[in-house]
Write a structure and sequence with these properties.
- The structure is a single chain.
- With about 300 residues, the chain is α/β, with parallel strands linked by helices.
- Helices cover about 35% and strands about 15% of the residues.
- Strands 1-2-4-3-5-6-7-8 form an eight-stranded mixed beta sheet, sandwiched between helices.
- The longest helix is centred in the middle third of the chain and has 17 residues.
Length: about 300
């Protein structure tokens, strides 16, 4: 495999493999946190709302909590009603329905149900990594509940990271291996305080933050999520996304190969691709100013 593509694939799936030299060899499940009273709990997700104005839903990625968006929420909430989504089982939450097949479909259905029940008009749906895949699922399958779509460093078919010729059928064995490996990976026994390496972020501080986020995720939910992300190909449905704008931010830390991969993944789709320089997978950590500007540009676009 091309080493650049391999590094890209590691970036997308990295939160699955938090290995610490001092980690125990027995798997543990994070204790379930009790949601505060101001957080709405649904079968597959919870939602916290802040601010007033046009609606924006922010969906974090694989094994990530809603805290991923902390850098933009204070300013965004001055002008928008911000709905911070968290997948049940991530951030220490009770997994509820998310250890079963149908996790991604269930999350999208929860989002649509919440939007419809609360009469939220034309919300922007923004997602990072797996959250970006969910944003595209919303745009394609629930267009009446999706006003605009922002995808942050995510492909419409994750398994393209392993080769542009990948199909759902060819990806399935690797997805099964990834699910099994996730379940077998030892959980850290203490907070991560030293750089774990990897290319989730360009800084040691960013990599440590991501590692600690991932360490709080329930392995059963991470395992099911990675399997479904690797075997969901939304490319045939991209033409159904009528939301405007439909913007895709992608990190260019891997150089020209990143651009080639993202352009191939979105070829023939209505998506507008926006490169973010000097960043790896967690763009909001690596280039917070550039990310905030891109987010504002997306929300201000007409």
């Amino acid at each position: 495999m091309n080493p650049i593509i391999l590094r890209l694939s590691v970036a997308a799936l990295a939160p699955l493999a938090i290995l610490r030299p001092d980690a125990g060899h027995c798997q543990t499940t994070p204790a379930a946190a009790t949601a505060p009273a101001d957080i709405i709990q649904l079968p597959h997700i919870s939602i916290e709302a802040v601010g007033k104005g046009p609606a924006v839903f922010l969906i974090p990625g694989l094994a990530s909590p809603r805290a991923v968006w902390n850098g933009v929420v204070p300013d965004l909430a001055r002008t928008h009603r911000v709905y911070l989504v968290q997948v049940n089982g991530f951030g220490g939450d009770d997994p509820r329905e998310n250890t079963k097949p149908g996790l991604l479909d269930g999350i999208a259905a929860d989002l649509n149900g919440y939007i419809v029940a609360n009469h939220i008009k034309d919300p922007a749906i923004a997602g990072h990594s797996m959250g970006g895949l969910l944003a595209m699922m919303m745009g394609a399958r629930y267009p009446q509940s999706t006003g605009r779509v922002l995808v942050v460093d995510s492909l419409p078919f994750f398994s393209l990271l392993f080769g542009l010729e990948a199909t759902v059928d060819s990806a399935r064995p690797f997805a099964e291996q990834a699910r099994a490996r996730t379940l077998a990976t030892p959980q850290p026994t203490a907070p991560v305080t030293t750089d774990p390496g990897g290319i989730w972020s360009i800084t040691p501080e960013g990599r440590i933050k991501v590692a600690n986020w991932a360490a709080k995720a329930d392995p059963r939910v991470s395992a099911q999520a990675v399997y479904e992300a690797m075997t969901t190909d939304i490319r045939p449905e991209l033409g159904k996304i009528t939301a405007k704008p439909f913007t895709v931010l992608y990190a260019t830390g891997a150089g020209p190969k990143a651009t080639q991969l993202w352009e191939a993944g979105y070829a023939g789709s209505p998506a507008k691709l926006v490169p973010i320089a000097d960043s790896w997978h967690f763009i909001m950590l690596d280039q917070p100013a550039a990310f905030a500007k891109a987010l504002n540009d997306f929300l201000d676009a007409r």
